[in-house]
Amino acid sequence: MEALLLAIYATIVWLIFFKFKLLPWTTSAKVIVVTIPVVGMITLILLLNVFAPSSGDVIVVRNSVGIVSQVKGRVIDVPVRINQRVKQGDVLFKIDATQYKAQVNSIKAKLDLATLRVSENQQLVAAGAGNRFDLEKAQADLLDLQEQFKHAQYDLEQTVMRAPSDGIIVNVQLRPGAYVAA
What we know:
Blueprint: H1 2-19, H2 27-51, E1 73-77, E2 85-86, E3 91-95, H3 98-127, H4 132-157, E4 160-162, E5 167-168, E6 179-180
Antiparallel strand pairs: 1-3, 1-6, 2-5, 3-4
């Protein structure tokens, strides 16, 4: 930009003093012709330093995704490192799943028992020996346990944290043995 302004200024000086000879080429004219661009360029550079946005430390802004565990527990494995490329679905870290597996197994056993009770109550009601209220309660318990089972399975799946999208790992603060709170 400065070079373009100097070229335009030099063309104007050439037209005024040499081509059309509108002004004489005297010593005072020479001083003025040299002083004007020097002062103008210094002023331009100072103004650009004050008003034009610039930065010495360039930062490239990219979308980033913070990874937060949905379940609590002790971290047992962190297979990723800083600046490592990951694909969607790659394992980022694993949490000890022992208590979550036990919870799934416990609810599964209760679910099997509730299914058996619903079946028994249906047979008793059909034979006229059972109470309709007991059947409805058993069915409600079964539905409740099915929801608990889905929730327990979800918690178990969340013990393995996977990359939500392709990207680069920029910060790893987890180490095996660290405790993660949900």
